[in-house]
Amino acid sequence: MSFFFGRRHSVSGAPAEDDGVPRNPNMRLRRRASVPNAPSQTRGTHDRNVFQDLFRRHRDDSEMEMSTVERGHGSTHANQSKKSTATATKGHTGSQSSPQVHEPVAKGHNQEGNHDATSSSEYALSKKDIETLFSGAPFFLLERGKYDHHYPQVIFPFDDHDPTIQNLWDRKPLPHPSYTLCTLHAHLPVPDRWVISKDEPIHLNSWKKTGGAKRATFDIGIFEVPNMLSMNGKDPGAVGLRHFLELPVADAVRYPEEPKKLNYIQLSSIPASEVYELMEHYHDVYALSGGAAYDRKQLLCDGPSAWKKIGVRDINLQCLVERLRTLTNLRRELLHGKKATTILDIESTRDLYSGLFTKFLYPPSKPLLADSSLAHSLKSQIKALTMTLAARNAWVDFSLPEWRLYAGQLLWEAGPHPDGDLLDPSTCSKPWMHPTLERRWLLIQMLLAAELLLRLDATVRVGILDNSKELQITAQDVDDFEKLRSGKVDWDLVVVRRFMDTFDISYRADEPDHPGFDPVEHTGHQRGEKNHEKNPRSFFENLLHRSLSGSAAESTESAWKCSLVPTYLDQQLQGLLVFGQEIGWPGLDGLRAGLESAIGSGQMNEAIANAYNKPVHNMLPVEAGAPLSKEEMHTRSPSRRWIALHCSQDQKASVQLGGWITRSWLSGFVFPGEQISHLLMATILENDPDALAKLGPIANLYGGFAYNGMTWWSKECVVGRVLASLEDTKECLGWIRSAVVPKDAWTVQPLDNSWFEVSVQPPLSMPGKPRIRQGNKIAYESTPLGRGERVSGAFSLPLDSPLEKEPKKVVFETLTFSGKDGQSLENTPHPIVDRTLMTFSIASGTDSPWKVSFQLRYNVRFITSHECRPPGNFISYHCACPTGSGTSTPSSSSSPRHHRLPGHPLHSGYKYKHISLESLPEHYVSDDAFLETSHHSNHSNHHRNHEVLIVDARGGHERETFARAWCASLGYHALIGRVGRTCLACCIREARAISVKVVLRVDGGVNRSPYPSTQTLPGLKEI
What is the chain's percent helix, strand, coil content, to nearest 5? Predict the structure, then answer.
């Protein structure tokens, strides 16, 4: 029955012997002493030796000075700890206490986790040792859901009773309540009128306690992919682990789904009489519902006779709207009422059947029912509704991300359309054709989805939870429904929930039809018959015109008689203004004044209600070029997502409210996924006349633009992700503002007031399936216990090297663009950047600076490292570098204040290599150098390919930008390991978990989280 309740939690798929999680249910872990500055507890000699052994091994290793900082854990002898001393260095100088990484002692020793026989100074780690050492260390794994979906999870199994550790994250919270529309994942609610600005909460008004809505019984069980809660990583321009892992299986990749294989009937295997009967009913109701593909536009043009094939009647508009309103009110009662209610409390099963199959659908034939003896059952109604909505390409498919963006165009924009994939009424001369037919068709889709949703909810509550004898649900019923439903039907249910939550629906009988509209005159005019006196109707056209009082008259009633009034206008407006403030929009004051004067405050005014119930017309100016083709709407380009902004202001209108994009955002008719970022920026642009005049009406929501000496970049553009680490950048919900304006490579002039499309290549990746499809491998590759022996000598404590006293100074110089074959981009409409060059200068002491340039070729991503908390420890330590580098050293002195190690231990099976920032220009390797080797490669090379590269980018924002540009030039994704948030060992393990080659260690002085996870300890910031 899991399909009714959504995905269930499951156990990690990691092997029992390698994930470090106790399998015995009786061995539940008690609360650890993991809060900051917890009083030290008395430990035995065994515990003391475990900690001392970690420090001894690391201190002895640091005495080997090497110019190239490289370390292979697996090649360190197990008996090396015998030569260590237990005495800590008294001076605590950087050179003495520095845990410099080095080359292996025994180069012939290459096998991971393979050590010599355990010496007397090594100890097999007990359960208590493991719990103590790895307290606060994140475990990475996959949770398997329905339909072969996998959900990345981060857990702290040794701290399950410590909320301060369980609440560690790699993402920022959503800064405004309106932004929760972007996700279907469970999350803490954002209080009303509360925003997060510059990482600090701002209370606009005093908080108030309000009653939340109850959950519906039926759980659709799907989520947006990638996870939008994880889109806002704690580092600028970065995403969280969940978002990154789900990118290869995103909705844009997964949909449209492959049609399900059908059990076709072999005509040769059935009697001739049955063949003739089958052919005789070919044009009957639901005749093509078994998987046949349609063309939505052609289906609309073919009219009611074609709609009958998928079971849909020519529905009376007033009946449709009133039923939608009834179902909407019922759902609100279900969610907000005092007692549990279902549709069966209002209408009987037979009444539901009668209303559905006499007003909206044709009754299905008996062979289509699961049980012909229960023709009026709720199950037969669910099956008929599901089959109708699942008709391929007959409806708007909201499983496609592009339709989630363009849904508002169906509701509010009148043709001709400058973009999108909508029907042109001039191409059809049938009597039922009407300019609002597509709006009407969407309303029918919403009605059928609402009927299905409330029946499913009643089925779960009455048939399963209440064990009703009148409504019995069997395993076969569940299996039958699973075979019928598809991603398209699931998303219909998601959209109709948002539709009913967003609008107050009513029928306006006094609303006139399209002014002066005549179906025959309209189609004739579109064919060029402008002079009606010279082009009189033919006899048949007149006869057809007089017969519209029949079934076609239902289709020609204006769908604008359905009034949709938004219910969350004020909250959506505040969310838009917060977005404008967070991205530093220069025209925000004018934007606020214009929208607030139009919308007002308090109750919905009549002018706004009318603005939402009148079509908007959008005609592109001549200089904007031809309308965008439908291929642009359905493109899968990683660098281009064009959309036409509203630029035809109706001066006669009482309210200037932009176009369908603005109406979509302000109404809250926004669906889960990346579309929220597109709608926010597009709404800002089309309501700023100055920006619209300078930039033009065609926006590229996957690119960036320069405007008035500043640039704004979509987070989908690699240029924005690299520039995000510079000082004085701003970021909010998928858009980044930067002070860097690109220059033309030929003229060296700034390319201001222009859009940019930046061409990129896919980043390098391991061969085979995406990481999220590799099941147990995430947990297996990143377990803190490693894959070798679990003895004290197999672990070491990797730390960051101390900062140089006089490091080389890295300065960002310029960002230059050039077109195809190096052509200039000046005065080019919609410029396509073929070559993106980022130039830096490096200076050292009195030496003259030299310049380094990186070409941003690859569409790489940056991932925020997940927070960890180092384990409690009785050995005190202090920071060797007071600037917050995070480098700590053991001390023989005791202190009652410090009770934490500077990081988590790392097993010798994890290979990593340090690279200095200044040496990055020399590390240009072939594209496949880091990929997994084939079975014919030698074992040593296999280990090198598994190395994680640690790039020391501490020392300033521009050093981090330098490292990011290097990653984009080579095609390496990178994990941003901020010092003080994540220890080096956990960064290395997470990089292995998500199959990322590079870890960028950056300064820990910037707190990207509005909620400090712990108190600050000396020498360790935010750990």
Answer: 35, 15, 50
Task: State whether residue 23 is helix, strand or coil.
Answer: coil
Q: Decide if pLDDT at 356 tops 80.
A: yes
Residue 287 tokens read as 């005749």
Owner of token pair 């007397």: 120
Query: 667-682 pLDDT, tens per residue?
Result: 999 999 999 999 999 9
Cβ pair 556, 434 in contact under 8 A: yes
List the one residue out of 956, 979, 986 whose CA is nearest residue 800.
979
352 class by beta-carbon count within 10 Å (0-12 exposed, 13-18 middle, 19+ buried): buried
Mean pLDDT computed over 860-873:
91
Amino acid at 214: K
Q: Per-residue pLDDT tens for 927-943?
A: 454 444 333 344 444 44
**Whether the predicted pLDDT of 315 surpasses 90:** yes
**Taking the complete model, does pTM exceed 0.85, yes or no?**
no
* Among 112-126, 583-597, 933-947, the least confident range: 933-947
Number of Cβ atoms within 10 Å of the Cβ of 16: 11
Report the C-alpha gap between 410 and 396 in whole angstroms: 10
Instruction: For residue 664, give the amino acid letter.
Output: S
What does the alpha-carbon distance between residue 1004 and residue 306 come to, in Å, rounded to a whole number?
A: 64
Beta strands in 739-876 (DSSP E): 743-744, 754-758, 795-796, 809-818, 832-833, 835-843, 850-855, 862-864
For residues 772 and 353, give the distance between their C-alpha atoms in angstroms, rounded to a whole number.
Answer: 44
Closest to 913 measured CA to CA, from 96, 104, 95, 98: 104
Instruction: Report yes or no: 883 and 803 within 8 Å, Cβ to Cβ.
Output: yes
One-letter-per-residue 3-state SS of 572-586: HHHHHHHHHHHCCCC
Contacts of 177 (CB under 8 A, 6+ apart): 189, 190, 191, 192, 193, 194, 571, 575
Residue 639 pLDDT > 60: yes
Q: Is the pLDDT of residue 159 over 70?
A: yes
Q: State the pairing for strand pair 809-818/743-744.
A: parallel
CA 905 vs CA 132, 799, 853, 983, 1020: distances in Å: 11, 10, 37, 9, 16
Whether residue 869 contacts residue 168, with contact meaning beta carbons closer than 8 Å, is answered with yes
CA 518 to chain centroid = 46
- The partner residues of 464 in beta bridges, in order of sequence, read none
HSE at residue 761, side-chain half, CA atoms within 13 A, is 15
Q: Interhelix angle for 539-546 vs 519-526, to 10°? A: 140
CA distance 319 to 315: 7
